[in-house]
Amino acid sequence: MEPASVTPLHPGNLWPVRSAEADEVVERAKRGDREAFRELFRRHRADVARLAFRMLGASSMGSSDLEDVVQEVFLQVHKSLADFRGQSKFSTWLHRVTVNVVLMNRRAARSRPVFAAEGLGDHELESTHRPDEEAARNQRLLAFQRVLSKLPEKKRTVFVLHEIEGLAPAEIATMVDAPVLTVRTRLFYARREICELMLDEPSLKSLSAELMASQSKPKSEEDQS
Amino acid sequence: MSSNADPRALREMVKAAQQQDVPELDWNKLESKLFAQLDGDSARSSQGDEAAFSPVPDLEIETVGEEVRPSLLPGAVAAAVQLSPAPSRVSPIAERKNRFAWVGALAVAAAFVAVWFAREAPQQADIAVVSEPIDPMKVPAAPGMSGARDLAALDRGDVVEAALGPVAFGKLGVLEWTLAAGGRLAVRQALSSLENGVENQEIELESGSIASVVSAEHELVVVAGDTQVAMVGPATVSITRSSQLLVVDLKQGSASVGLRGDRGNVRMLSAPVRASFSLDGGLKFEIIPDAPVAAVEPVNAQRDVPPAVVADTTEQIPSEAATLNNGKRVNSDPLNNTPAATPGAEPVVAVLSDAAVSSTLMSCLRGVRAKEQTNSSADVTVSVVSTLKVETLADGSVKSASFSPPLRGDMQSCAVFLFRSKLSGGARVLSVPVSL
Q1: Coarse DSSP helix, strand, coil percentages of chain A, rounded to the nearest 5 percent
Q2: Would the CB atoms of A65 and B415 count as touching at under 8 Å?
């Protein structure tokens, strides 16, 4: 029996392990077994949804949009599954399909004006000064999404895949069809640009200031002692 | 003072993003929709003969290293996704032969490649190459119509070719179209009934011209490449696909043009108007002046005739019913601020009456809901009641638009056309009741 190979885990990487049983389901689905494809869908749908959600940005989509993307991903998977050769992880291949569906979705969405639902706009949330931690966290997350959305597409993609999804640069390289070095370069510049852009967001700027202050405080206390 | 945020702040935010909850989706509904769509695709595939690869290879696989990378063939019909951020590369012929070796159809693959290379434009459809056309003479005559075949007899996946002369299909009081000689189309959605007896059909124009008359309330959607033209009757239109363009000659009624499958992000046309659109979703378009449409060469022609441009057409601005001014070149995409090719030409936007706003909006919303009901297996009727409030500036341009109560994103997108238009009546707030 083929031993299970486990995807290197990262806090954000919860993609399922590869196993003989999983491979067998993929093989059956490739042969047109509808129930096997249903099984694939059920196994991976949450992972696809999570990646799509993270790549699209929580603030820019509703659950119906997310559903559309997930459905589109699995339609594409169904169309091209017969050509999946199993020479790499199914999850890597599925990642790739998901990423590209999301990118197309973003490109299509970019040309549309965004309608802000009444009472649900980011600005309203931002201007609401609620003292509790949850509100502050949400506010920062929205701000962070705005920062990410300002990044060029290629940098944003590798950043999300590596930093948030926890994928290795080599794996990302196969997904985006670029050399590993290019992926690393994009990551470097993505981080740098994000750090610059974060200063434009008051909530993130204040977070940065708080962290700097907390860093200098123990040091000064140490100096006094 | 540092010009960058503390890297620890970035790490904090990455951690927070990792922990962010993904919205709970209705998996049962999603699964039902997905498999309903797959069933539809399977039905389409089974209607083709052996030459029609199953599934239709509108999504090809290209080898990258050890793994296969899905990518679009140039001109893929149905795929709305390009599965590579990099430009698509052409798969080697040998790979293609191996890929479809199980079909035992090397000859078909060779023909496929031959036709592919014979086509100039990458947006050309591939479905045409692998599907055999039906014989129109075997289709029963349309009841009550002279010279037309029964439109209701066409199923999804059927290919119609006007090899010997024009071919007409129709259903009395609903819809009729004539495919000009040399043209070819595929039925993407058979004539089907929506609510209130409304019927619609979706076809893919692969080459040539189609002339159509859509009766009141009924709907026809014509897709070419990634561009979609949707008409709700009464409308009279002829549509010609060239190698790189889609020319829409709207003689009566209105039509929306945009990315296939997207009813929200569209440009509206009101008759009489003639316009050409790129096959990438109509991102680039031009209004064609009064030059005859016949000037656009058919798909087999060696080159396209670019639409003529009228430098100054102030006096040609049509009535307020026209959403795009006939005879004047306009920006290819006002949202992207793409400059007009004509120096000094002012971008022209539509002037809509209140009735036009309402009818366009409702048409789009009905389309969204119809699509939803088609995809859903649940026997549930959803009512939609809202009011669209449109605030306009003195020049009629739209300052803001909002639904109260808010609707789902895809439905709200139906109001996008307002931002490409102007409303008559100057600065005001227009309320458009929505009830479905």
Answers
A1: 75, 0, 25
A2: no
